[in-house]
Each structure stands twice: as C-alpha cells, then as structure tokens.
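Re-run with default settings, no changes from the original entry. Doing this only to confirm the output is reproducible before filing.
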Amino acid sequence: MSRNNEKNIKKHNDKLHKAQDRVKQSAITRKEQLKQIVKKFNEANESGTK
C-alpha cells in the first residue's frame, strides 16, 4: 500500500484547509478590531477638538 492513498490525501487537505481558514479568520478579526479602535479614536479626537 502506498502512503498517498485517497484517505490520507483527504485527511491532509482537510487539515491544511482548516489551518488556512483559521489564518484567514484571524486576519479578518484583526481588521475588524482595528476599525473599531480607529473609530473610537476618531470620535474621541473630534469631541476633544470642538
């Protein structure tokens, strides 16, 4: 039997795609958090200058 059978290939691809999804999701989360921080900073800055 070879190591590269369908079952092992599928298991590897599933693990790989799960890891890629985690990286993508964490990047999206970071961008959302950054938007919130910038928004709060801009609101505080506007109220402080008026």
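Helices lie at 6-49. The longest helix spans residues 6-49.
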